[in-house]
Predict the 3D structure of the following.
Amino acid sequence: MLVSIYTLQDDPHRIEAQSVTCKTAVGEITILDNHRPYITFLTPGPIRIIDIDGKDDTINSANAGLLEVLPGSIVNILVREL
């Protein structure tokens, strides 16, 4: 799946990933390939991305944000800054 991370300061960061795990207002969620469409608010905390090679890339977000899952295994993450 294609994960795109958007911030106000930087150009979009795009990663081909196996999974994305992050904290939401109702608990932790893991998004896998072919996940159904979904949108939720993110709470501050780590965003863990496992890339297609199995490498763990954890990003710490000090701000709340938004997670959007679109058809075609597209995941958009919007946060103010990382």
Observations:
- The two ends are 21 Å apart (CA to CA).
- The chain has a mean pLDDT of 95.
- The chain has no helices and seven strands.
- The beta strands are 2-6, 13-24, 27-32, 38-51, 56-61, 65-70, 74-79.
